[in-house]
Amino acid sequence: MPSTKEGLQRLLDFFVYGMLRTSEMLGNAPLFLRTIEEEGLRKFLMTNMPQFQAPDDPAEACEQYTRAADESGLYDGSDSVFRADGDSVRAEIGDKCVYRRVCTMRHDEGLPVHCIRAFALAEMLRIRLDADFDWKLERFGRPCRITLTRAKWK
Asked: I want to staple 77 with a disulfide (CB 3.0 to 4.6 A). Which of 66, 118, 133, 136 is the partner?
């Protein structure tokens, strides 16, 4: 196990980067990543945030989930902003995102950027609100802009 915060971050970077490359080689990266995120998130919510109950409003649910994840030490969500927009949530995630280095590497290599935070938010909404949300990375940058939209199908 790495002995410094920087070492732990590098381990996370290599793990997430490898997971993304593997998911692409399997042919359906979004399905693979959603499956992994769902399984991990269910365990994380049950173990680390058992009292977390998301409100019915998706933007508020994202805000409270991010705050709870921040308090649990999962990541620094202090530079994340969520706004309701009809059946959508518009999110901005700033420089403190724990996955920014991996996304930057992929962007610089010309590979698709799969936002792990967006996957987590969409899965949290599905698990806690029993509603499917599709996510889209509108812009990779500073800040990253994500839209989570309630799926039209049931």
From this structure: 66
**Alpha helices, DSSP H only, in the chain?**
5-25, 29-48, 58-72, 100-108, 116-129
Which among 139, 123, 119, 142 has a CA at the least distance from the CA of 131? 123
What pLDDT, in 10s, does the model give residues 137-153? 999 989 999 999 998 76
**Do residues 92 and 145 touch, judged by C-beta distance below 8 A?**
yes
Q: Which amino acid is at 59?
A: A
- Name the one residue in this structure whose structure tokens are 């995102």: 97
Q: Could you list the residue range(s) of the whole structural domain that residue 50 is in?
A: 5-150
In contact, 106 and 18? CB cutoff 8 Å: no
**How far from the centroid of its chain's Cα atoms is residue 96's Cα?**
13
As for how many domains the chain has, the answer is: 1
- Say if CB 121 and CB 135 are below 8 A apart: yes
Model confidence over 87-141: pLDDT tens digits?
Answer: 899 999 999 998 899 999 999 999 889 888 998 999 999 988 888 999 999 999 8
